[in-house]
Amino acid sequence: MSDAPNRTLAAFGAVLIYACIIAFTDNYVRVIAADAGLWQFHATRTAMAFAILALAALPMGLKLWPRRPWAVFARSAVHGTAMLIYFGALAFLPVAQVAAGLFTAPIFVLFFQRYLYGQPFRGIQILAVVVGFAGVVLVLGPEALSGATLAALLPVISGALYAMGNIATQRWCAGETAESVVAGFFGMLGVYGLVGMAVLWAFPLVVPVGTEGFLMRGPVWPTGTFLWWTFVQAAGSLVGVGMFVKAYQMAEVSRVSVFEYVILPASALWGFILWGETLSWLAWVGMALIALAGIIIARPQPQPGQSPTAARQ
After folding, report:
1. What value does the mean pLDDT of the chain take?
2. pLDDT by residue (tens digit) across 252-291?
3. Residue 81 and residue 79: Cα distance in Å, rounded?
4. Cα 280 from chain centre
5. For 1-10, 83-92, 186-195, 295-304, which range has the lowest pLDDT when averaged over its residues?
6. In what helix (H) or strand (E) does residue 167 lie, and over which residues does it extend?
7. What are the DSSP calls for 242-307, one per residue?
């Protein structure tokens, strides 16, 4: 196709917008975590996101109801759980570190496709797994080598579920509109939030002050700070995820998946600008190795009888 390079460039632009928005908003989860709990955050963010979608549905002609509700529901459950863990980890760890764990997803995709769908490994992919695992160890730091604490492993668990969600998007939700998939995702997180709030209201826990109580805190009276930054999260997530989905609609999945790694330096840059956070040189090397593993995994391979040059076109 003659317009393939232009569409690939447009897809990169969409992913760049997604990365800059999400990296910025995710840095403020720690501010939200100081005033309210994870569950109230998700319930409130979903309510705000649905309000925005409802206002935009008619003028933009959005199709919010899925063609196959069961497929969108199942995909939303997997992806929603991944994001639930992801946001929980943001209260304790730097955004760049959590994002690095999330982007181990291509490594898990290989294992899931092999053992769930019978897709064999290629030799270069095994190398990518080794490189990616080394990167994870470097980013997670000493915790990954001494005791493997739950806090250190949460981003990787999120990455495994995120991988399953990506597979589900491709295999279960082909033909669904981007907005119906996004609405299902937010809806599932909203359900998780309401259930968590109900449980913690009925069986309250002794909650530490500040961000340390993020996971254990039940419903509280929302502060202005909480409402503002949750709204920013809702609006930013809708725009960012919309750009993300559009990117996958404009270009080859193998190319777009490589573009996603721009969120790693974007997260680190916002962390430095907003909070003065710096990462060790080992963490930067680790993020580079994780990105390299993703590039190796996503690199298209020539089909039988096809030249290597043709495989890249």
Report:
1. 81
2. 665 676 677 788 788 888 888 998 887 778 878 887 887 7
3. 5
4. 23
5. 295-304
6. helix 150-171
7. HHHHHHHHHS-HHHHHHHGGGHHHHHHHHHHHHH-----HHHHHHHHHHHHHHHHHHS--PPTT--
Contact 135, 290 (CB under 8 A): yes
Number of domains in the chain: 1
Q: Hey, what are 57's tokens?
A: 């549905």
Backbone angles phi, psi at 234, to 5 degrees: -65, -50
Tokens (6 digits) for 213: 């109580």
Tokens 């979903």 correspond to 46
Range of the domain at 113: 4-311
Of 304, 246, 234, 309, give the one whose Cα is nearest residue 25: 234
Q: CA–CA separation, 31 vs 33, rounded Å? A: 5
Lowest model confidence (mean pLDDT) among 55-59, 177-181, 278-282: 278-282
| CB of 77 closer than 8 Å to CB of 173 | no
Fill in the amino acid letter for 40. Q
Answer whether 73's CB lies under 8 Å from 265's CB.
no
Give the span between the Cα atoms of 162 and 241, in whole angstroms: 14
